[in-house]
Amino acid sequence: MTVLRAVPLDVPRLSCLVSDADDLSLLPALAWAGVDGFQVRAKGLTTRDLVALSRAVLDAVRPYDARVLVNDRLDVALAAGADGVHLGAEDLAVADARRLAPHLLVGATCRTRAGAEAAAADGADYAGFGPLLATTSKAGLPAPLGVDAVREAAGVLPLVAIGGLTATTAADARAAGAHGVAVIGAIWRHPDPLAAAKELVQAVA
Q: Which residues of the chain have pLDDT under 70?
């Protein structure tokens, strides 16, 4: 049975993934420009360093009402005081995360409508949907889904499209039914990250 959920107000429209290799001094400007979500993802850090990084991101963007989520690690999200956690297929189960942290945003990586339905039934607030297009930001990813897949999966959970997106393709994803997008290279590998962020904010508005 399809489980429909209203769009939670706190699900960001534009999320920027952040690692310890990124220029954290730019975070306040990115949040000021309208990036309303930041997801901390730094798989090589120790738990203590990941908590410290998450707190640094929170300190940088909280004055602008941006949301901060931690990738994979509910324990780190709770320790740092983050707004939520994003869980992949091999991470803590969504249902367990929802039980342990009912007050947090919980996102789940999904690739199909059926996956979104299962995540919704387990209590997820949104589905991270992708990779939508080809990307070099993460190795070992499955084949890109394409924008048409958004249309097929939309309407169950808010979909946050990720993977190879630019301002143009982010707008396409929104038009296909995505609630928002998450990016890495579109901001951090751009010659002018702040200008790129502003363009993306307009694209997903």
A: 1-9, 135-140
Has this prediction a pTM greater than 0.90?
yes
CATH of 14-204 among 3.30.230.70, 1.10.630.10, 3.20.20.70, 3.40.1160.10 = 3.20.20.70
Consult the annotation and say whether 169 binds a ligand.
Answer: no
What pLDDT score does 3 carry? 41
- 91 known member of a binding site: yes
Domain edges within the chain? 14-204
Beta bridge partners of 15: 37, 182
198 is in an annotated binding site: no
Whether residue 167 is annotated as binding a ligand: the answer is: no
Q: Is 54 annotated as a binding residue?
A: no
Does the annotation place 202 within a ligand binding site? Answer: no
| C-alpha dist (Å) from residue 4 to 96, 121, 126, 159, 173 | 20, 9, 11, 12, 20
- 11 assigned ligand-binding residue: no
Task: Consult the annotation and say whether 48 binds a ligand.
Answer: no
